[in-house]
């Protein structure tokens, strides 16, 4: 899109088409990345995690449709078939900020806590998180006995990793494990049992293993964080409404926007707020 030279009030839309070719192995590897990122899934009900060239039927996932929708909006594109796919969207997607140079997910303490609050939900019983636009959290097991000892509010590493892969923009298991590792690092969850076989095979997974054997417990700090996030959002909304009614604004809108754009965590929350409104 660009201004029309002959009509200052109009715009000119130009479309360019780029064609390229690839061999079968490259195409198969690319499709496998779509499967790993949870953009497509087997349409015949098979829990296939390996892309099959023949005999398989695939369809876009809710996450894949939302990524496609985001791409179209970012590039000013409109696809007729996209509106027909909206009925397949099962819930919102948490877009993670990425480093512009390395393309790695930006995971600091603040971002980790935001993702964690979405993961756990209001009380860790599978309800919606403290934000109305958040996806339903995982369902924690109230009581679990391990080696004769009872633990409360637990889940497996597999459940956490699967939720992250389905409900955030991470593109593979490695990125999901990296985020979950920060949950342990910041003492939001605590390890109950460790999958030693998996840890010995993958040395980078000492703190978190994405398997059904590894069990994690919601820590007291994690519980406090979720409860604080829920109550602080409600109180901050009330304060914002009151200050707006009085017209008392301490910072200019431009300064606030600059502050948001410079902070990856604030950008994440701001993007969610834009989608909601």
Automatic annotation (TrEMBL):
Which GO BP annotation is one of this protein's?
intracellular signal transduction
What InterPro entries does the database record attribute to this sequence? DEP_dom, RGS1/SST2-like_Fungal-DR, WH-like_DNA-bd_sf, WH_DNA-bd_sf
Q: Where is the DEP domain?
A: 134-220
Superkingdom, natural source:
Eukaryota
Provide the protein name. Regulator of G protein signaling
Query: Could you tell me where the Polar residues compositional bias lies?
Result: 227-245
Q: Where is this region: Disordered?
A: 227-250
